[in-house]
């Protein structure tokens, strides 16, 4: 009986020892692989976090440029000087450019423009973008326009608009505008005469002043010229 008990005890001890050894071996064989995978994942995550390339300045600049291009004009810094034609167009300009300054007067001539520019400058209303719409009421000397544009040489852009008026001076006015403006680098002609060709329904009976659709079209040409 004693021998059997001793034998049973030894069998239990051996089984416990063998079971513990096998468990330890299995745990040891799995741990390095798991640790290696975890280590790789951790290292990979750190690399992605630390070594990801920073945003490129060119992309940022491109986005900023795109924003600027799509940003709408509000009219601030834009001044229009003209006669009765621009007075009719003014409400349609201000629909799109609410902060624009429009100085129009019935019967105004190109020879009056310098006085208007000086007065607007004193009042702080002369912008960096200037539109001149004059010539409806008569011809003018080249030097009148040349001196005016010379005085505006510091402006970012100056637009000079041709006229459509059923009078003998129409062609002379338009050719003078094109010839003088070509002498300057920051000036541009907006050719209203060409743009309004064949659009008689835009005008009232006098062939000069514009109906609402004509005024809206005129305003769109000026805004396009500014851009």
Describe the structure.
By secondary structure, this protein is of the alpha/beta class. The chain has two domains: 52 residues; 154 residues, SGNH hydrolase (Rossmann fold, 3-Layer(aba) Sandwich). The protein has eight helices and five strands, in the order ααβαβαβαβαβαα. It has a five-stranded parallel β-sheet with strand order 2-1-3-4-5, sandwiched between helices. The protein is elongated and about 130 Å long. It starts with a helix and ends with a helix. This is Acyltransferase. It comes from Brevibacillus brevis (Bacillus brevis).
User: In CATH, what is the homologous superfamily of the largest domain?
Assistant: SGNH hydrolase
The helix/strand series, from N terminus to C terminus, equals: HHEHEHEHEHEHH
Helix content: 55-70%
The fold-level CATH name of the largest domain is: Rossmann fold
Task: Report mean pLDDT, rounded to a whole number.
Answer: 80
Instruction: Tell me the CATH architecture of the largest domain.
Output: 3-Layer(aba) Sandwich
Number of strands: 5
N-end to C-end Cα span: 112 Å
Total discrete domains: 2
Note the total helix count. Answer: 8
What descriptive keywords fit this protein?
five-stranded parallel β-sheet, 227 residues, Rossmann fold, SGNH_hydro_sf, 8 helices, elongated, Acyltransferase, 2 domains
Task: Set out the fold topology.
Elements: H1 2-51, H2 57-70, E1 78-82, H3 84-96, E2 101-104, H4 113-122, E3 129-133, H5 142-151, E4 157-161, H6 170-181, E5 187-190, H7 192-195, H8 212-226
Helix pairs in contact: 3-8, 5-6
Organism: Brevibacillus brevis
Protein name: Acyltransferase
InterPro entries: SGNH_hydro_sf
């Amino acid at each position: 009986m004693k021998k059997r008990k001793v034998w049973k005890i030894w069998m239990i001890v051996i089984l416990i020892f063998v079971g513990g050894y096998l468990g330890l071996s299995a745990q040891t064989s799995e741990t390095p692989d798991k640790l290696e995978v975890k280590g790789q994942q951790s290292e990979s995550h750190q690399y992605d976090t630390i070594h990801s390339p920073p945003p490129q300045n060119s992309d940022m600049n491109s986005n900023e440029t795109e924003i600027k291009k799509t940003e709408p004009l509000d009219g601030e810094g834009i001044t229009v000087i003209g006669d009765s034609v621009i007075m009719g167009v003014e409400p349609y300009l201000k629909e799109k450019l609410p902060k624009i300054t429009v100085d129009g007067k019935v019967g105004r001539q190109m020879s009056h423009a310098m006085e208007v520019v000086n007065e607007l400058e004193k009042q702080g209303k002369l912008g960096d973008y200037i539109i001149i719409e004059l010539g409806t009421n008569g011809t003018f000397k080249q030097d009148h326009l040349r001196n005016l544009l010379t005085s505006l040489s510091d402006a970012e852009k100056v637009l000079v608009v041709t006229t459509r008026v059923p009078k003998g001076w129409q062609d002379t006015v338009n050719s003078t505008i094109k010839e003088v403006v070509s002498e300057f680098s920051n000036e541009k002609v907006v050719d209203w005469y060409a743009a309004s060709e064949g659009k008689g329904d835009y005008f009232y009976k006098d062939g000069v002043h514009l109906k609402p659709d004509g005024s809206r079209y005129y305003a769109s040409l000026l805004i396009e010229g500014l851009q």
